[in-house]
Amino acid sequence: MSIARVTEISATSPNSFDEATAVGVQRANETLRNVKSAWVKEQQVRVEGGKISEYQVNLMVTFVLDD
Questions:
Q1: What pLDDT is recorded for position 56?
Q2: C-alpha to C-alpha distance for 47 and 35, rounded to whole angstroms
Q3: Which is it for strands 51-64 and 35-48: parallel, antiparallel or unpaired?
Q4: pLDDT tens digits for 12-32?
Q5: Three-state SS letters, 37-55
Q6: How far apart are CA 57 and CA 39, in angstroms?
Q7: Sign of the torsion angle spanned by Cα atoms 44, 46, 50, 51
Q8: Beta strands in the chain (DSSP E)
Q9: Is this model's pTM higher than 0.85 or not?
């Protein structure tokens, strides 16, 4: 039987929500062991001068704890 934990992280990209999600998952995988899934909890954009300057996602990352 395995036990998992969920942690929330935030990631940004100047290009897209997809890229922000990929950046977040990649970074989580560098820090956490046994990452199994992630889901996007929230999305938002930052606006400067009437244009989107940054995409942000808040991710819930699930990872399995070591035995």
A1: 98
A2: 32
A3: antiparallel
A4: 999 999 999 999 999 999 999
A5: EEEEEEEEEEEECCEEEEE
A6: 10
A7: negative
A8: 4-13, 35-48, 51-64
A9: yes
